[in-house]
Design brief:
Helix content is 14%, strand content 35%. It is built from three helices and 15 strands. Strands 4-1-6-7 form a four-stranded antiparallel beta sheet, with no helix packed on it.
Length: 246
């Protein structure tokens, strides 16, 4: 994501509030205390975001002449849902933290391990015609996708109806040496609301399709905010970002 600026400021006037700003467990400003200015004179605190969810902590080091310690955190519009700036209000007591989470869990599809799945996703992003419905499909270019497991069955039955032709080609599965028919790959996958029952479809090798599906499902199930943290359950209505990895 690169470097971003975080604006930390008081809600009203200067009253002596001081804070420490911590990004993903690392103090990025204010170890000895940042005095909070009025909103018009916001301090710009620089930090580097990692892919996926980021945790920004504002720690109140004191309470000024007016309780409590009141800070506003503004996050760059490129790092939040729907491209809108996010504005957080925190009012911690002295010695307490307020945590803010932003960014998106990134689910990677590997070009090296699942080349046909990765190629199909990039074709959908580019707006190329779908193999099965080139004249009617609403091209699925979404990278930010919303988890909605209860709707999987309905969307898949609409996107790949029983009347739709099967893929015409067979290939030898290199993993077991058996002849296997190609499969219709959906993007977005039926797990996500943006599939809309009208996904972008392409015939790809079955082992590639199955492998990429298992991979992103496992990533969603075991998503971690940081490599050292406990798994974070991604539930219905959570948004993830699909990315292509080497």
């Amino acid at each position: 994501m690169g470097d971003r600026y975080f604006q930390v400021c008081v809600k009203t006037s200067i009253d002596g509030d001081q804070v420490e700003v911590i990004l993903n467990g690392v103090t990025i400003a204010g170890g000895a205390g940042i005095p909070l200015p009025p909103r018009a004179g916001a301090i710009r605190v620089e930090g580097t975001l990692m892919p996926g969810v980021n945790k920004l902590t504002v720690r109140a080091l004191n309470v000024g002449s007016v309780m409590p310690n009141t800070a506003i955190v503004q996050i760059d519009k490129n790092d939040v849902l729907q491209g809108e700036p996010r504005r957080f209000l925190g009012s911690p007591s002295s010695g307490f933290d307020v945590d803010y989470y932003f960014g998106f869990p990134q689910i990677g599809v590997s070009q090296g391990n699942h080349p046909q799945s990765a190629q199909h996703i990039q074709e959908a992003w580019a707006g190329l015609p779908s193999e099965f419905r080139p004249s009617t499909i609403e091209i699925a270019t979404a990278r930010l996708l919303t988890i909605d497991r209860p709707g999987i069955g309905l969307r898949r039955s609409q996107s790949i109806p029983s009347s739709m032709a099967s893929c015409p080609e067979y290939h030898i599965n290199p993993n077991n040496g058996k002849l296997q028919i190609d499969q219709r790959d959906e993007y977005p996958p039926a797990m996500f609301r943006e599939n809309k029952g009208n996904a972008h479809l392409k015939c790809i090798n079955g082992w590639d399709n199955g492998g990429s599906g298992k991979s992103f499902d496992l990533q969603i199930s075991n998503y971690r905010v940081k490599p050292t943290s406990s798994p974070v359950a991604l539930a219905r209505d959570n948004v993830v970002e699909f990315v292509i990895t080497p």
